[in-house]
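Thread: "does anyone have the structure for this chain?"

Original post by V.I.:
We have the sequence but no experimental structure in hand. Need at least a predicted one for the grant figures.
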Amino acid sequence: MAKPLILVTAALEHSADPYVVSLERRGALVRVVSPQEILPPGDPMSGATALLLTGGADVDPELYGAAVDPKAGVHTNRPRDDMEMALLRHALRENLPILGVCRGMQLLNVAFGGKLIQDLPNHREQHGAGPGHSAFHEVYVSLGTKLAAILGTGGFFRLNSRHHQGLKEPQKSVALLASAYSLGDGLIEAVESPAHDWVIGVQCHPENEDEMPKAFSRLFQAFVERAETAAGRRRSTQASST
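Reply from O.Q.:
Generated one for you, tokens below.
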């Protein structure tokens, strides 16, 4: 069977390396796309059958109807926001598998009509000191969710964390289900779309596999398998139309 092609977004191509390694290790072909590229108008995903939204700069508050809080230390990349929103809308229309990581999860929430907390209190201690420096905290994955099914179990996990923005129930899109929560502060740590086959966002960084519980290795595996299924479905559709 042909390997599935997964589109991975990033501010710069090399910044996606850990994600690329994790996906290729599980049998996927990967194409990294950055805001410097011009997306093909007919098929912005260039034949890919899954979309991975990676971590990075803050989502522009204008996209969720807010002004920038001058005290929040917000750093945005609007060209990247616009590129990823276009890819996300296309992938949702095609019902393709989508995985959002950190910023990617936050972008999913915004795309579905939610908002974000622009700066979290005590984020350095609880949610990471900055790029490449993880904090660790206890997260509860809710039983009966798609995420729990992928991991093989729900319950408590010790997960890495590197973010200063986030969301709680008041900011969450009503179209998304919260599937994991941070203990202590109630931050939402994972979301999923009940209306789509495979749309999942996680606030942690599963691409840093040496920091993650073993169960989370199944997340990338399940994502690649769904991309493979989507590729097979596309091939069948194309064959039947010829």
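V.I.: this helps a lot. The helical segments are 17-25, 78-93, 103-111, 123-127, 146-151, 217-240.
O.Q.: and The mean pLDDT is 92.
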